[in-house]
Amino acid sequence: MTANNATTPARAKNVVMASHGRAPWYTPDGKNVDAYVVGIAGGSSSGKTSVARAILQGLDHIPSVMILSQDSFYKYHTEEEIRLAFASELDVDHPDSIDMELFAKCIVDLKKGKATELPVYSFVHHQRMPETKYIYGASVIIVEGILAMQPELRDLYDLKIFVNCDSDLMLARRIKRDTVERGRDVNGILDQYLRFVKSSYDNFVQPSSKYADIIVPGYNNETAIELLITHVKRQLKTRALRFRDDLVVSKSELAQSASWDDEHVVLLEQTNQLRGIMTILRDTETNRGDFIFYIDRLATLIVEKALTLLPHKSKDVVTPTGNLYHGVANCDSEIVGVSILRSGGPFSHGLRRVIRDVPLGSLLIQSDPRTGEPLLLNLNLPQQLRSHTTSEKTQVLLLDSQMGTGAAALMAIRVLLDHGVPERHITFLTFLVSRQAVHTVRRAFPHVRIVTAAIDSRLDEVHLPGSSGKLDAADPEFAARLIAQSDVYDDASEAAATPTEWRNNDAGSAAAEREKDLAAGVNDRLAWVVLPGMGHIGDRYYLN
């Protein structure tokens, strides 16, 4: 995601760089952990943006690093102020020219893990534009601007940097930038510099350097930047959150905590019809065509049950006989669906069969193969959820095929809460859920409803040999992680002889496949699996 505050894309200063997915930014009880915020101040054209970008590039292995520029937060200008700006007679270097209240609010929102909307300012039109830029999700936030070290902002930073540069070099850079990128003449640039820029630097910018934790030169600063990058990485390492195994509690703890009520955990009535559908879906012999038909049918049943839990409104209609009928209507305009890809796809079809034009969004969450922790790789939310004005009034149906550990569910719910959706407005729809996952979600988010067709009692960590295992290691609900072969097997013969229920072939060919994996150096996997379960629902639905 990027947020452009000028008409020249190459010089857009608000930048988000995401790589390798965003790891959990919250604790097992669902509370956000603050992002790490770096503030960079310095004179105009001192090299603040270059330092920020160099740090960003040095953190290329850190997911979701963003630069937030002060330049987006200039106040709205009157017609007279715009006239003065075009004549280079408007002081935009004074602290009063910046909307400090909004600037601080956006930093706080992003630091707390919330989505926010940035203003968009055009230096070509000398005006804040009517549109805003939606932005969300950063582990590191780099804030840069000449006035970034003002009192309203200083306490928000974990690390404060001041970029110090020779005044002649800053002026030369400013002339080059404003003539090339902003179409201004040299005389106007010099006049503005002498009247406003230098005065602001002497009175506000340079004095703020005493609050910096480190002062970096505006050129030949490679060593300083390397030290900064090393420091930030060290700080982030202390904040790393890994709680995959903590989500799975002991049987005794689970028995003591399993006191959920019907209001928040809704199990479909276990009729013979439903049991028959579940029997077909759990059967490994069920062909793909039948599996798709009954999954679609079950999705519709679960969606219809979920809708009975949402607010309704009265509606009077006139019947074909000319009589008045006092009925009810769903609040369809306030309902959206968000699917956890890709196994949430079948629910999207079921939801569309019940509410034809429902807005749909998606979250791509997969497991980190090294740790088994969930990673947020992408999100595409409906427009209603991108603004807090509308999100707080929206009912969200969160869709996924099953909940195993609850890892993906926690991440998806946290994303919705970060966008301003009230916890009571979130309903999680799933075909199958483990008792462990119910415990996980209820502990962190007690007001989120879960609607499901079955609650299975077992969640076991099983061994999936090599690449021929029948579970997708990227699926977050299996929380699969790669392990060294030596951690599981003493030798290749033991590995080849180990049976696994995730293969449909016979023992001989399974051994042959395992030998092939070993020869290719394929690592093994450990994954949490719901038992008796339904296997990998997404694969069974989408793959031949």
TrEMBL record:
Its annotated pathway reads: Pyrimidine metabolism; CTP biosynthesis via salvage pathway; CTP from cytidine: step 1/3; Pyrimidine metabolism; UMP biosynthesis via salvage pathway; UMP from uridine: step 1/1
The keyword GTP-binding belongs to this UniProt entry's keyword annotation: no
Task: Write out the entry's keywords from A to Z.
Answer: ATP-binding, Kinase, Nucleotide-binding, Transferase
Task: Enumerate the InterPro entries for this protein.
Answer: P-loop_NTPase, PRK/URK, PRTase-like, PRTase_dom, Uridine_kinase-like
**CDD domains reported for this sequence:** PRTases_typeI, UMPK
Instruction: List the catalysed reactions.
Output: uridine + ATP = UMP + ADP + H(+); cytidine + ATP = CMP + ADP + H(+)
Q: What stretches pass through the bilayer?
A: none
GO BP annotation list: CTP salvage; UMP salvage
State what protein this is by name: Uridine kinase
